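Hello K.,

You asked for the raw outputs rather than the summary table, so here they are, unedited. I folded two proteins back to back in the same session to keep the settings identical. This is the first:
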Amino acid sequence: MSWQVSENMKRHNGPFHSPSLLESSRSWLPHGAIAALLVPGCRRGAGRVELPFLLALLVLALLCPAASAKSTAPEKPKPPAVAPPPSQDPNPEGQKAEDEPFDRTQYPLMSIAKAVSMEPCPPNPKAKPLIKDRLFSAELVYQGSLRDTPPARYELMKRWTKQIGDPDAAPRYKKEISLSEGKRPLWLPVPEGLIEPMQADLVVGDRALIYAVFVGCVQGKPVFAIDEFETFTPEDEEADDYITRRPSSRPGGDPS
């Protein structure tokens, strides 16, 4: 039947006699469909195809390639999603105070006795705990003993760390270290990160420059905590005035 259709198309004297039209139609219409459309004209025996049908065939030939090209055109790729820029907050949440460099200028040099005289504690041992939060530095003598921080003093440390905005720091002050100023023995809460360096750098009787905090008063007595310390160089040991001695920075002296 396909051969008959081809012969009829070749014999047609109209503008559709070219075999290329039939060949192009086969690329988008099944052979059976072409035959079914052309057979009615062939059965009339005139050896020709009706003009309206050929016009319809031409319209389909013109429209179908355009529709096919539109349906097969590749979609343009979507631009990749751009991630938002990282936060530029200079103080991101969770930033710890110990990340800041240690500023020695905030610790004026004075004796323990002077620090207490400037902000005396109430003499009544039953007085309510007080928070002072005063920074200073003092030359003290290392005695080397350790003990657990007494409960009342530890509670004051917890109140102080909460007041300065770092309540998580309180557990680091569970130990106190012994020092002295003249004949006055002292117990100072010390951060756990400083215990081993102090034991490595100092022996009993050594003098050290202690950067301390006057935390406050509990049971009528002052409480001082260590922030940092420095040892003195050997050539300065014979100096009469400790204020003129040059403290040497301890390597790895982060108080955290």
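The second followed immediately with the same parameters:
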Amino acid sequence: MRFKLISLLVSLVFIPVAVLAQYIGLYLGKILYFIYEKIMFLNMPDFLLIIAPLAISGLNEAKEDFLNTILEVFKIQNEF
């Protein structure tokens, strides 16, 4: 019963953390490309200014998903 409760809580926490990671990554990507364009004067193509923040947010979310999965696996292994 305890294992099912922990699994349920981890599953419920996962969705808000994934959404939060997506938004944080999106804004970090926008800040990064603002620095590239306005401060470092790197000439970036327009499509990169649109696509790159989305790719960075996706990588950030993938990292969060991976860490959450690893932590859940270790919790399961410690139960047995």
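DSSP finds two helices and no strands in the chain.

Happy to rerun anything if the numbers look odd on your end.

Regards,
P.
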